[in-house]
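tmp note - LVIVD repeat-containing protein
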Amino acid sequence: MTKIFKILLFTLGIATLQSCCRSGDCDETDDFPGTMVVSAYEPVYMERPAFETSVELSAPKPVLNAGKIYVQGSYLFINEKNEGFHVFNNSDPSNPLPIHFLASPGATDLAIRENVFFINQATDLIAVQVDLEGGNLTVSKRIKETFPVMLSPDGFFPYELPENNVIVNWIPKTNTP
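out:
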């Protein structure tokens, strides 16, 4: 078997296992008799109106859960997974200075072209005009539901997605069975 064919079979198998109960007409034990399969995480929801107005520049804060890193000119951007981006003045790479935090709940990636930041904000793709010197930003475009619903870190799809809500993060359950 070729490597590509093996990867395809593996991916198809995982997708089949994950989709077994998405329709809601089976219970959590149907595919694994005698066991209960549940995620160790619970979704963090945000109502869509609040989600769509949540992007803002604020004071710098500590990096706690770093994701991808992006460098543009004399600026350094470090993703705070599912929360936004730390912005540093990187004129002196041996001493980057924190200048802003770009809050964007659900965000994990960023691309910049000219002065437009393209951010995957959970399920949406947004274009943001940013003035880092003046500390201002404007969301100039939002394309809703460009990306799939965020899966839990252990690969689970939410059983229910409340209407007009977006999953912006997953947090560990406090009482995992």
